[in-house]
Amino acid sequence: MSQVSRPGASPEPYEYNKGPVTLRRGLVPKSTTDQRLLDSGGPADWVHTDPWRVLRIQSEFVEGFGALAELGPAVSVFGSARTQRDAPEYELAVQIGSRLVDAGFAVITGGGPGAMEGANKGAMEAGGVSVGLGIELPFEQGLNQYVDLGVNFRYFFARKTMFVKYAQGFIVLPGGFGTFDELFEALVLVQTGKVTSFPIVLVGTAYWQGLLDWIKGPVLEQKMISEPDIDLLFVTDDVDEAVQRIASAQDPNA
Known about the structure:
- The protein contains 9 helices and 9 strands.
- The chain has 254 residues and is α/β, with parallel strands linked by helices.
- The protein starts with 14 loop residues before the first strand and ends with a helix.
- 31% of the residues are buried.
């Protein structure tokens, strides 16, 4: 049970409840939250602390939910920001964006250059909804010119929520650490049942083969995953096959 210091009582309470947080011993504050709120003096550095950032984080979720609530069926497309416009992977991204729109999906990317730009371009030119979820980074170039609906985030975890919440599946083109991050997070969500009917398609068999060999080799052999987990990944070089895999997960008759 929580104790409170009173005149004549022990100088240090055993336990102090600060909302859902419990403090004991040397962590018990010298004043209450209300006292600090109503005190007209004191430092103003509290506006820069982590608890205050919760409101900024909350605002990112509110803005994202509000902007994407009426998006309709969509697919998140990932790939490297370093993909050059004259690279085969860029044209592949353009085709994927276009085919997804033809299949009735909006296209969501990270909004950056490279493969993301290609997918947004394909979606826009096909007359569909082209979405970009940007992130604040020192080297980011901003949203690409083919984004029709853009939302910028400060926090990766808020942005990641939008990628999953408003997508019916992922199509993953060759990419680096950022692409791997999104890929493996999606795999964990599907594996643990946090999302259902969520296909993950890797495009580019030559690029992804080493990863697949490692997963099917030491990862499976050492029982770090189960045999059915391998089936969570579908690999292809064919754009139509990739889109069909997403569509069929939504409609078994597709």
